[in-house]
């Protein structure tokens, strides 16, 4: 059966949520801040199936470095509202990049540390499928030279990691997806992937801006390697593979992947 989106009014009524702010509409979700059982919450109703999968992954993590989830279906998720004043983007732009990179690494380590994978959502996307637009033989590739090399790197990483232990991946860890919940850093908005743990560190390198990403690239490699226990070359290879995939996707959608392309051109 094809997935069908829910509606905001239906879930506001179903879960008895009192709206406390304007609804935000994104290409993938409807977001409504509210009050529920004397808590500040955020209702997220998915507009696309990928977002619905992310809600189920959040619930599966059960607050382990992820936002606390109170209700979830295959269409919507009700979670705590981030109310802390700190943001990783502001900290990074204030010259605290080492600190923010470490916070992101610690969050990833905690997410990957959930011991029982057997109860994870059944529709997680394997990395081999996630990278298909980059590695499939006949994929159209802009900036062909860099992307062909990166596609070879990605294929090698996927093949080399096939026999290693895989984890449930967030798939989109960056400075805007780890928020301050009253002094606790918690992840939101996972993609719900499955594969080698190194992939989750890659998007750190593309954020929060091109100039910050480029100037801190080598320092971030060292910090991520130290926190994760992965060697620097492995981290760098996954970053290059991710940047190439981002460039391919942006080209298909008509976007401009400035940071990913800059990293690929400078360090790839």
From TrEMBL:
The keyword Electron transport is assigned to this record: no
Keywords, in A-Z order: Kinase, Transferase
Keyword Glycoprotein: no
Coiled-coil annotated residue ranges, if any: none
UniProt cross-references to InterPro entries, sorted A to Z: Kinase-like_dom_sf, NH2Glyco/OHUrea_AB-resist_kin
Biological processes annotated in GO: secondary metabolic process
GO molecular function: kinase activity; phosphotransferase activity, alcohol group as acceptor
Pfam families per UniProt: APH_6_hur
Protein name in UniProt: Streptomycin 6-kinase
UniProt organism field: Arthrobacter alpinus
């Amino acid at each position: 059966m094809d997935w069908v989106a829910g509606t905001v009014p239906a879930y506001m009524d179903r879960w008895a949520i009192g709206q406390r702010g304007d609804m935000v509409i994104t290409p993938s979700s409807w977001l409504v801040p509210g009050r529920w059982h004397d808590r500040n919450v955020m209702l997220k109703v998915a507009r696309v199936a990928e977002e619905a999968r992310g809600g189920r992954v959040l619930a599966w993590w059960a607050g382990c470095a992820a936002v606390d989830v109170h209700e979830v279906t295959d269409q919507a998720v009700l979670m705590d509202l981030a109310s802390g004043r700190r943001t990783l983007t502001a900290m990074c732009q204030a010259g605290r990049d080492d600190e923010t990179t470490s916070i992101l690494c610690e969050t990833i380590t905690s997410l990957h540390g959930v011991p029982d994978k057997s109860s994870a959502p059944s529709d997680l996307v394997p990395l081999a499928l996630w990278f298909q637009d980059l590695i499939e033989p006949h994929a159209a590739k802009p900036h062909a030279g860099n992307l062909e090399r990166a596609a070879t790197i990605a294929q090698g990483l996927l093949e080399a990691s096939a026999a290693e232990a895989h984890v449930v991946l967030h798939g989109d860890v960056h400075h805007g997806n780890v928020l301050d919940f009253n002094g606790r850093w918690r992840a939101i908005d996972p993609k719900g992937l499955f594969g080698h743990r190194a992939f989750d560190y890659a998007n750190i390198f593309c954020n929060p801006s091109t100039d910050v990403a480029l100037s801190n690239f080598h320092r971030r490699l060292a910090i991520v390697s130290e926190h994760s226990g992965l060697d620097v070359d492995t981290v760098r290879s996954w970053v290059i593979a991710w940047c190439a995939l981002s460039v391919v996707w942006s080209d298909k959608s008509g976007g401009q992947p400035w940071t990913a392309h800059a990293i690929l051109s400078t360090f790839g």
